[in-house]
Write a structure and sequence with these properties.
This protein has two domains: 3-208, Rossmann fold; 214-382, P-loop containing nucleotide triphosphate hydrolases (Rossmann fold), CATH 3.40.50. It is 39% helix and 18% strand. The chain has 16 helices and 15 strands. The chain has helices at residues 3-6, 10-19, 26-36, 51-61, 79-92, 109-117, 127-135, 152-155, 161-169, 186-195, 226-234, 248-260, 274-285, 319-326, 344-357, 377-384, and strands at 41-44, 72-75, 100-103, 122-125, 146-149, 176-181, 200-203, 214-220, 241-245, 265-268, 291-295, 309-312, 336-342, 361-367, 370-373. An eight-stranded mixed sheet has the order 10-11-9-12-13-8-14-15, sandwiched between helices. Strands 3-4-2-5-6-1-7 form a seven-stranded parallel sheet, with helices on both faces. The longest helix is centred in the N-terminal third of the chain and has 14 residues, at 79-92. The chain starts with a helix and ends in a 13-residue tail after the last helix.
């Protein structure tokens, strides 16, 4: 057993061994000791590097189990992320006696109040619903020891920031505040610091992370031809792909054209109804269709296990967006492929992003139903040529 797990309670040590983990990730090594010392921590580490466990293990380690009061509140940006975190809490707290509950907007309020009557030790929820329950005096923040803000870059936006600040302010001043995100802008760091008590800042760079088994490719295409390229990609073999769009308009056009060509796809955007969204995600996870078309906003907090491909149909607007999108595949040591569909003008922008991230970018072409290296058409054509049948010889008797 490593020195890392020796600092944790037995139920967490058992869960660690059961999960088959060996060494902690960089963010876990840096953040967990500080959190165990009850310090406020601001953690920044790329997508898919174990940030959830970096705060969850030490938070669970310090919980006093049994019906008492809420000891930790975790805030997350989306329904899906709330449910994912709650699932992790349930997995890692097995056998500990720690109880938990999840709270999301749109859910039945009476049922959620009933959950609180059972006096869970840890709660996780979206800021809007948590704040509602605080105002109704169903959640008593003065008893909370730790507040976690997960995916802070998505919560420190005009839509959520005031609600988040009010939630944190409603807790006692000596509570522990943990702020985690894949990327933190200077403005986001300033917002976090304004709510924290002498925070320890933990940053993990790409160089500290084992190289993921992710291939970064791109295909040059006219904008009008991208939909056909995406359709052909879907026929390359078993695929579970998340395709990103910057807006609903383009996404809807692709959905219509792909379905007209008899390719079943899923869609996620801001106008997708909650029930349809949940059904769509469940169906995609089961592998009922190969591609889920999504806008960046709609895909926030979405974590699909076994995602084989990320496709940038619309080029990312910046490095951070490329990192967030691409980090959905190749997680936990799995292999993955990131494909960008770009016009000639967008090719220059993509290469600049690749230079800033120091990633190898390979140009590919779609030819005769195959993804091939740039300039390899001739070889593929030759390999596809039908073999000549041997000529029949006649023999004299």
């Amino acid at each position: 057993m490593s020195q890392f797990t020796e600092a944790l309670q037995p139920f967490l040590q058992q869960a660690w061994e059961k999960a088959g983990f060996e060494e902690p990730t960089a963010i876990q090594k840096k953040a967990i000791p500080l959190i165990l010392e009850n310090k406020d921590v601001m953690g920044e580490s790329p997508t898919g590097t174990g940030k959830t466990l970096a705060y969850l293990l030490p938070v669970l380690n310090q919980i006093q189990p049994g019906p008492s009061h809420i000891q930790a509140v975790i805030l997350a940006s989306s329904h899906e992320l709330v449910m994912q975190i709650h699932g992790e809490i349930q997995t890692w707290s097995q056998g500990s006696g720690i109880s938990s509950a999840a709270f999301i907007g749109g859910a039945n309020m009476k049922r959620q109040i009933e959950k609180l009557k059972k006096r869970p030790n840890v709660i996780v929820g979206t800021p809007g619903r948590i704040h509602e329950l605080i105002k109704m005096k169903k959640i008593k923040m003065h008893e909370v020891k730790t507040v976690v803000i997960d995916e802070a870059d998505q919560l420190f936006v005009p839509e959520h920031i005031q609600t988040v600040q009010q939630i944190v302010k409603s807790a006692l001043s000596d509570r522990q505040l943990l702020v985690f995100s894949a990327t933190l802008s200077e403005k986001a760091k300033q917002i976090a610091e304004s709510m924290m008590n002498q925070p320890s800042v933990v940053e993990v760079s790409q160089s500290e992370i084992p190289a993921p088994k992710v291939e970064h490719l791109y295909i040059v295409s006219e904008a009008r031809d991208k939909v056909d390229v995406l359709r052909k990609l879907a026929h390359q073999g078993p695929m579970k792909a998340l395709a990103f769009f910057k807006g609903i308009e383009t996404l809807s056009i692709f959905e219509e054209k792909l379905r007209f060509k008899h390719l079943e796809v899923g869609v996620l955007h801001s106008e997708t109804k909650k029930a349809d969204r949940a059904n769509m995600i469940t169906s995609f996870r089961k592998g009922n269709f190969p591609i889920l078309l999504a806008t960046d906003v709609a895909a926030r907090g979405l974590d699909i296990k076994g995602l084989t491909h990320v496709v940038h149909v619309d080029i990312p607007q910046n490095v951070e967006q490329y990192v967030h999108r691409s980090g959905r595949t190749g997680r936990s040591g799995a292999e993955g492929t990131v494909i960008s569909l770009v016009t000639e003008r967008e090719e220059r922008e993509l290469k600049q992003i690749a230079r800033e991230l120091n990633i190898k970018l390979t140009k590919k072409e779609l030819y005769m139903g195959q993804i091939v290296e740039d300039g390899m058409k001739q070889q593929v054509r030759a390999s596809q040529k039908p073999r000549k049948k041997p000529s029949k010889r006649t023999f004299k008797k």
